[in-house]
Structure formats: C-alpha cells, structure tokens
Amino acid sequence: MTTTAADQAPFPGPGGDTSGTAPRKTAPEPVDENVWLEDIYGEEQLAWVEEQNSRTEDLLEDGGYAELEAGILEVLDSTDRIAMVGKRGDWYYNFWKDGRNPKGLWRRTTWDSYCTDDPEWDVLLDVDELSRTEGVEWVFHGATFLRPAAGGPYRLALLALSPDGGDANRYREFDVEARGFVGADEGGFDLPTAKGNVSWLDADTLLVASTADGLPKTASSYARTAVTLKRGESLATAPRLFEVPEDHMMAVAAHDSTPGFERTFAVDYIDFFNRTNFVLRDESWVPIDVPTDVNVSAHREWLLFRPQQDWVLEGTTYPSGSLVAANFEDYLAGSRMLTVLFTPDAHTSLQSWSWTRNFLLLNLLKDVSSEIRVLDPSRAGDSPDGGWAATPLDACPPLHDVNAYAVDDEDEAPADGGAGDDFWLIATGFTTPTTLMRGTLERGGAEDGADQSGTGTPGVVSRHATVKTSPSFFADGDYEVEQHFAVSDDGTPVPYFQVAPRGLPLDGQNPTQLSGYGGFEVSRTPAYSGTVGRAWLERRTTLSDGSDGKAPHSRGGVYVVANIRGGGEYGPAWHRAALKENRHRAYEDFAAVARDLISRGVTSPRRLGCVGGSNGGLLVGNMLTRYPELFRAVSCGVPLLDMRRYTKLSAGHSWIAEYGDPDVPEQWEYIRTFSPYHLLKDAVEYPETFIWTAPSDDRVGPVQARKMAARMLAMGIPNVWFHEALEGGHAGASDNRQAAALQARSQHFLWKALAG
User: Fold this and answer.
1) What is the C-alpha to C-alpha distance for residues 688 and 288, in angstroms, rounded to an integer?
2) Helix 703-714 vs helix 43-60: crossing angle, to nearest 10
3) Burial level of 28, CB count in 10 A (0-12/13-18/19+)?
4) Please, what is the Cα angle at 368 between 362 and 370, to 5 degrees?
5) Which of 562, 431, 436 has the alpha carbon at shortest distance from 501?
6) Going by C-beta distance under 8 Å and a sequence separation of 6 or more, which residues neighbour residue 64?
7) Cα distance from N-terminal residue to C-terminal residue, the chain
8) Cα–Cα dist 114/121, whole Å
C-alpha cells in the first residue's frame, strides 16, 4: 500500500444497496432485433462473426496492410525496447514478449547485470512452453510475492494467469528458487479461474475475494465475498471474512505486511466514486471514518486522503482533488488534525503519488504537462502553507509525461546501504522515446545549498541518471508537437496535442487521426509510440485540393490527442463535469477539437478520422451518430454502444455511476441522447465505420459492437466493417502478433479512408 494512483478503483462501479425498497418503475426497452447476438459463443452467432471477419479481411488485408502489420510487429517485438523491472529483495523482475516468445518470459536479473547492454536473465517461467504443455492459451497477468521472514529471500509468489486474456484469472503458487509451481501434493495454492483479488496473509494463508466455487457475485460480475483460505482448504469451505451487498461493485481484502505496521484492510467498493474502507482490529472491521467519496491509502504511520468532491471536516474545506495527510493511529482514535499536502488550481492536478521509505513523490499535471514534487514528512510545517517541505524535481520538459515512483520503499534507507529512498523516473513524449532513469532522495539543508524549493526552507537533494533509453522507431526529429486549446460549446477551453510534420501545410488536406477517451478520470498524456509513428505519421500520400494552383505534393499523417472532460487531466472536477446527464460535454469537447483542426486548416471533414476504444469507443460512436458531418472515418474498438442494455452485459453494471441507470425512466431520458445504437437514423450520410472487438473481453464484451454493426448493415449504410479477434480480452490482443494485427487493421482502415 505504498504507490497510489489518484483513483484506486480497479473498475468503475454502481450505486448503493437498494434492498428492502419498493419496486421501482422500469424504463421500457426499445425494440432490439439483434438481441440474438448477445449469445457470445453461440454457433449461429460465431458464424455471423466469421462471415463479417472474412469480409473485413478481404477489404483491409492487401499488400499495404501486410507491410504495415510487419512494421508494427517489428516495433512490438524489438529486443532493443526497455525491459522495465520491479525490485523484490536482491532481484529485478521483468515480463518480456518478443517474436521468439510471443506469450512471454517471466524472468529476473541482478542490478549490475541489468545496467549492462545485454543483461543475463534468469528465466523463471516460459509461458509459451506452459501453454503448449497444458493445452491452454495462458496470458500472464502478474505476480504477488509473499514477504519473507526478516533477512530471507523472496521465494513464493502467486501468479495470475488468464486462460484467454480476460479479467478472470487463475492464481497459482510459484517457487522462484525451484522455478516451478508448488504442487498439490505440497499443499500449493491453486485457485480456480475467476474474477477477484488475492493477498498473502502469511506463508500458509491467503485473503481471497473470488467468484469461484459458488462464491457470490455482485451485479457487476465481481467478487462479493472475501474469505480466509488456509493451505489445503477449498474456497467453498473457507471462513467468510468480508461481504458486500449484491448491488455494490465488489469486495476487496488485502494485508499490508510492512514490519511494524502490519494491518489487514477490506474495501467495500460501492461504485466508481464511493467506497468504505475498513481495518481489522480485534477480529472486528473498523471503518476509516471519511465520506465514501474520499479515497484513502495507508503507508506506515500515515493515512492519505484525496477527496473526489469538496470535503468539509470540522469547519475546514479540503478541496476536490487535494491530498491530505493524518497520523493513522491518531485518526482512528478520533483526532482530526490533518495536513494539506497538495491543493489543485485551475491548471494543476494530482495524478498519482508514491512513497519511498522516507519521502512522498507527487506526480502532477499542469495543463497536461508533468511536474513532480518531493515531500518530506519529517519537515512538517516547513512550507509556507504549513504542509510538508516540498521540493520540485527538475526532470520534466514541457509537453512530456514524466512519472516518479519508488524502487523499493520497504528496503533499508540509503544510509544503511539500501534502496529505500531510490526512485524510478520514466519520461516520454510524442517524439521522445521512453527513457528510464533511477535516482536517490536525501535530505539537504540550506547551509549546503540544497534548498531547491525556493521557499527558504531546507529541501530534498535528488540525484538521478539515465539507465536505459528506448530506440527510435521513426524519424521523430522530422515532427513537432504543439498544444492548442479549442473552445467547447459552453465556453470551456479544451486542450489537445497535435503531432505533425514540420512545416505542415495548412490547406485542409492533411490526413488527421483524432484520438480521445473522456471517462473514468483517465488522463491522456504525451507518450512515444513507434506504432503511431510508423503506421500514421510516416505514411505518405499525394494530395492537394488544387485551389492554390500548386502541384500536389507528398504528405504524411497528423496525429491528435484530445484532453476532453470526463478524463482526469484537470482532476476530479474535470471528470465530474461530464457525468451522467452532462455526458454530452465530453462529446461537445471532442467535436470542438475537430472543428478547431478544420478551422486552423490542419484538416477537413474529408481528411479527418477519429479512433477510440472502450469508453473511447462510446465517444467515437457518438461522433458517428451525432457529428457525422465532421468525420470521414470512425474506428471504434471494444465499445459501449447500446446504452439501454449495457448494465446487463458483461461488467456493465459497474458503470452506472459514470453513465446512469437506463432502467430508471428519468435517467434513460438523458442516456438515450448518447446511446449510439439508438441514435442511428435513415437518410443520414455516415462516416466510413470500422467496429472491432473480441469475444474474450469479459469487461465490455463483444455484444454491443456486434449489434451496432448488424443494425448499420441492415440499414444499408455503406462502408461498415466489423472484426472480432477470437482472443485477447478487453485489450483485443494477448500477444504482440495479435496486437500488431489489431493496430494494423485500425490504422490501415483510417488511412485508406482519409488518404485515398
């Protein structure tokens, strides 16, 4: 419980317990001729999918496509990529995929070896070999280690393995020294495939929240119950530890094994905004007394709070998006002495935070460019506002994304020869390949010139150096990054990034790909993508409108990322501005960016396309149906589209707090205004449309994509294409080959439509 994102909810979720209330009136469901496609694995349904797949592949998989896919796969399989690592004990662990190991290798190395150009890797698990041996297409989803006894090595881990790339995992105990799974004859843990979470309590006990072995599910399809599982026991007979109401999102249980601060926690995730946190004391669950929309995290003696909305406590208001600290034990005992660590402003928001052993790293965005601050809790009251002494970390160039997080906060402090105050820095930009740096934090003093905060108080000395740099996969020096602001319908400035060739002709003829998300407080930040570089920026076409009398000339693509409301770029308020009945603001923002690109001469409706996945698929589905005049092509992936039935499909009930409940008549009245499946009309000239999904996606599911494509085809709308990858989960791909094919299809579709 040391590195904490601004919103820790693994999945967004529904409203509170309505048990015992009177039956409510339900909004009628419109006629749906495609309900039959909701049988995901039905024989007739899969035959329809295969027919559409074949049709789409015939269109897209030409000679240009094959070259494009090969170029993308070369990027994804490159052995020069940075192998990102996580430290456990004396080892640095990595999961790696490439052309020879498409499903991946779980491996480790030493720090000295990692720093070389060709590290020596100790391979612990070959997932390709495991899949061949067991006849299951396993997808590796991470490892959770048991903290060893003092001075001992990290040895036992629970590996999360998905049989199809979906969210449901099988957890199996693995011995890294023996390089194998702990067998049933040794009492090894092996939990059936299900949605849920697992945490070590001790060497022979797990805390498990699961939907396996008959344990109940919530309406959102996640675990409703957590149990205490001993070696040799089954989930079905394990003692119940914690349970939430059926209409809450999920139950989570976890143990913090930090020496001296051992605690067991449980969280009742009510919905995306609301949760109740508990700590186990004397075999009873004690709630951490805060409003349910205040996010809570613990580190050693500290509790941190991040309010989603303004929090008024004993006459003091703690603003939405701020970060506030209290002593853990004092707060549970009733003290309400809080220290404000960060307060947002109109331009700056908190994105995440991470504890080293002695310091707190804050990752901020200022107009969607990174800033990092280091806070020192030992110098409380040393800042002008009475908070902890803060020092800026000089590592953030403009229009870049830079994140700092601890290497191993549970290691010894540097003074004792440990890495406890070491931190990673990962820096990237649209035209800047990712760089991995490592640094160390130490307390300075004004007398040695270490005061970097500019406040006249002692600061924190930070030293960092580059460890590894990703290669360049396209001629990134030929392109420039600009940030612009469009004005939305209600006058709100909406930032967006534009990546384009230097000397871009502003004649409206540039093929332009506009990307966005706008939901669940997810921020879209600058990031290097060899795929976008090769598949879009470096592609060439010869275009001219002929109006200037100049000869046509070769030009490449323009890539644009919109930072619309519903996201987290400006904190919780930016997110809340586009919730439920205000959802239209996200779509108005995106349309405003499209119009700004057109008015500036970057592109035109003939040359403009948009792409989005998941909630971003709902976004571009609304561009298709509400703003068809702005776009020539729409690429819509793993999307929500049928907002009348979304709560009944896969994990859709999880998202009621984001979109509203379509069963409630008053809420369906506004939801229907952004339900693309119900907004299709005859006699409308729609953009060319590519809808893609996967049957193994157990989060959104393939159903809404299928039904949208089927309805559009039945309406006789031309240039509608559908493709369903037969594995890969919500990501649409479980290995690099599948990812390359998925990305190539989307990019090639857009290029053919916009640059043809």
Assistant:
1) 52
2) 70
3) exposed
4) 35
5) 431
6) 748
7) 52
8) 9
DSSP assignment of 374-386, as one string?
Answer: EEEEEEET-STTS
Q: Beta-carbon neighbour count of residue 373 at 10 Å?
A: 21
Cα(654)–Cα(269) distance, integer angstroms: 10
Give CA–CA dist 491/125, Å, rounded: 54
Burial class (CB in 10 A: 0-12, 13-18, 19+), 252: buried
Could you say which of 614, 635, 734, 746 is catalytic? 614
Return d(Cα 441, Cα 361) in angstroms, integer: 10
Cα–Cα distance list, 606 to 167, 556, 625, 629 (Å): 39, 15, 17, 9
Beta bridge pairs of residue 465 = 438
Q: Which of 396, 437, 575, 423 is nearest to 6 (CA)?
A: 575
Please give the helix or strand (H or E) that residue 575 lies within, else none.
Answer: helix 572-576
Q: How many angstroms separate the CA atoms of 51 and 381, rounded?
A: 67
Q: Could you give the CA distance from residue 743 to residue 15 in angstroms, rounded to a whole number?
A: 35
The one-letter code for the residue type at 217 is K
pTM summary value: 0.92
Instruction: Please spell the DSSP secondary structure of 14-51, one letter per residue.
Output: -----TTPPP---PPPPP-TTGGGG-TT-HHHHHHHHH
Mean per-residue pLDDT, 321-325: 98
Q: Which amino acid is at 80?
A: D
- Flag whether pLDDT at 448 surpasses 90: no
Mind spelling out the 3-state secondary structure of 583-643? CHHHHHHHHHHHHHHHHCCCCCHHHEEEEEECHHHHHHHHHHHHCHHHCCEEEEECCCCCC
Counting Cα atoms < 13 Å in the Cβ hemisphere of 26 gives 7
Nearest to 435 by CA among 527, 364, 560: 527
Residue 579: both structure tokens together: 């919730």
pLDDT of residue 452: 39
Question: Whole-angstrom Cα distance, residue 110 to residue 153?
Answer: 14
Q: For residue 152, give both structure tokens.
A: 């001992």
Q: What angle do CA 218, 223, 224 make, to 5 degrees?
A: 60
Residue with tokens 């995440």: 352
Q: What is the pLDDT of residue 445?
A: 65
| CA distances to 170, 373, 450, 736 from 413, in Å | 36, 20, 19, 39
Instruction: Say if residue 733's pLDDT is above 60.
Output: no
CB 520 within 8 A of CB 526: no
Q: What is the DSSP letter of 234?
A: -
| Least confident window among 317-321, 465-469, 695-699 | 695-699
Q: Report which of 601, 619, 622, 621 is spatially closest to residue 709, judged by C-alpha positions.
A: 621
* Residue 3: band (very low, low, confident or very high) from pLDDT cuts 50, 70, 90: very low
Is 347 catalytic? The answer is: no
Q: Mean pLDDT over residues 459-468, rounded?
A: 91
Residue from 730, 734, 746, 748 carrying the catalytic annotation:
730
Q: What are phi and psi of 37, to 5 degrees?
A: -75, -5
Contact 662, 27 (CB under 8 A): yes
CA 30, distance to chain mean position in Å, is 33
3-state secondary structure of 194: strand
Rounded to whole angstroms, the Cα distance separating 440 from 413 reads: 10
730 a catalytic residue: yes
Mean pLDDT (whole number) for 612-634:
98
Average pLDDT, integer, range 398-413: 95
Pairing of strands 608-613, 558-562: unpaired
Nearest in space to 168 (alpha carbons), one of 212, 208, 129, 231: 212
SS (H, E, C) 92-114: EEEEECCCCCCCCEEEEECHHHH
Residue 633: band (very low, low, confident or very high) from pLDDT cuts 50, 70, 90: very high
